[in-house]
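Q: I have 157 residues here and want to know how they pack in 3D. Can you give me a structure?
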Amino acid sequence: MRGPYLRAAALGALAAAGTAAIIGIPSDVIPNPWFVRQIGVDGFDVFVLVALSLLTGGLAVTYALAAGKTATAERAGVGSGIVGFFAISCPVCNKIVIALIGASGASGWFASVQPILGLIAIALASAAVIIRVRAIRNGSCPLPPPPSSADTTSAPV
């Protein structure tokens, strides 16, 4: 793997790690000394965080490899991150949720909706990746040429 493909893979790994940190640290799904949850993390929170991180990494790879933009994919990608944050955040620690529906609404109604939000976030991220892959396949976002055999060098053994 050389050139643009190596850079795209590195960018994808960085995007996945960044997504995990940006969503996982403030929601305290990734334990840290800065944020505290009043309601514990469950397995589905971890699943949503990992799935969103991997899908975001994959989406970043498509943007790194292929020129061109698809506004629908960009909106779906950003939307999945926002919805994903609300899906895994502590319902009674989230000041936005408390301001909108109060503490009893957050612990009762919102907590029961969070798994649905998680599935919606994963669906949005998946849709963004699918849109980008289709754009690459139909040629509206061309890929760089693969490295030629002349570009590869073998190291002496």
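Q: Anything worth noting?
A: Residues 95-137 form the longest helix (43 residues). The chain is about 70% helix and 0% strand.
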